TrEMBL record:
An example Gene Ontology CC term for this record: cytoplasm
Annotated protein name in UniProt: Nuclease homologue
SUPFAM superfamilies hit by this protein: Ada DNA repair protein, N-terminal domain (N-Ada 10) (SSF57884), Staphylococcal nuclease (SSF50199)
Domain TNase-like: 45-180
Keyword field contains Plastid: no
Pfam family membership, one: SNase
The keyword DNA damage belongs to this UniProt entry's keyword annotation: no
InterPro entries: Ada-like_dom_sf, SNase_OB-fold_sf, Staphylococal_nuclease_OB-fold
Keywords tagged on the record: Endonuclease, Hydrolase, Nuclease
Taxonomic lineage of the native organism: Bacteria, Pseudomonadati, Thermodesulfobacteriota, Desulfovibrionia, Desulfovibrionales
An annotated Gene Ontology molecular function: endonuclease activity
């Protein structure tokens, strides 16, 4: 990509100190503006990532031990085990989500595009991964109904739009986990949502009462909230377990 340049005319007439200072200031401003424009137009940095293991439907590990968290999605949680005994049941479609991610990513070399590396509170790098055909794995998992759109604050507008459209298609077709979720009565009951956090709460969940009035929004059904990109608050146990 060719860099943009700006031509600065030389001062005319006798060169005085005042003219020299003025010329240098103009020259610096022109250089600074050009660099800013060139930086803005740079393509996103592309990196290559090798996946060694898949932890669940949205988390992977590289050979170096670095954890990767797929940006903009949330997979159902797997059952929690202790000494090979289930101590907490997993959620519906958790196993299917992990299996599909293994098919798409395990032992594969994938690419990611980002202006800078972003990490969550668990020190996992947040990424959107692309296969060899430049198909987004995050988007594909949403389209197949294996995961739920998760409105991360650091999602770009373009990513949010793509991911939400993929989820809307899965909900409409009742693919994957949505077939069971949409068969439940709670999917058609009214919910209260937080416009700021993008979380929704069934009316019998106490968390909804804490939403500030200016951030409250009501949806006729939970399905409607999901179609608008809102995520079920974790404390409300909206999603079905195995």
């Amino acid at each position: 990509m060719r860099k943009k340049t700006i031509k600065v005319p030389l001062p005319k007439g006798k060169l005085t100190l005042k003219k020299l200072i003025y010329f240098l200031v103009v020259l610096f401003c022109a250089w600074f503006f050009t660099e800013q424009q060139n930086q803005t137009n740079l393509p996103a940095e592309q990196g290559t990532i090798k996946v060694q293991s898949v932890i669940d439907g949205d988390t992977l590990k590289t050979p170096s031990g670095e954890s990767l968290r797929l940006l903009g999605i949330d997979a159902p949680e797997l059952a929690k085990m202790r000494n090979r005994i289930v101590v907490e049941s997993g959620y519906h479609y958790a196993k299917e989500a992990k299996k599909r991610l293994e098919e798409l990513a395990l032992n594969q070399t994938l690419t990611t595009q980002a202006e800078q590396k972003i990490y969550d509170t668990y020190k996992r790098q947040l990424v959107e991964l692309f296969d060899n055909n430049q198909h987004s794995i995050n988007e594909l998992l949403l389209y197949e109904g294996l995961v739920i759109f998760y409105p991360f604050s650091n999602l770009s507008t373009e990513q949010s739009s793509r991911f939400l459209k993929a989820q809307q298609a899965a909900i409409t077709a009742e693919r994957g986990l949505w077939k069971k979720v949409l068969s439940l009565k709670q999917s058609y009951q009214p919910v209260i949502a937080n416009k700021r956090s993008k979380r929704f709460f069934p009316k019998n969940c106490a968390g909804g009462e804490k939403i500030a009035p200016q951030n409250r929004i009501a949806f006729k059904t939970a399905k409607e909230a999901l179609m608008f990109g809102y995520y079920p608050a974790r404390e409300c146990e909206f999603l079905p377990k195995e």
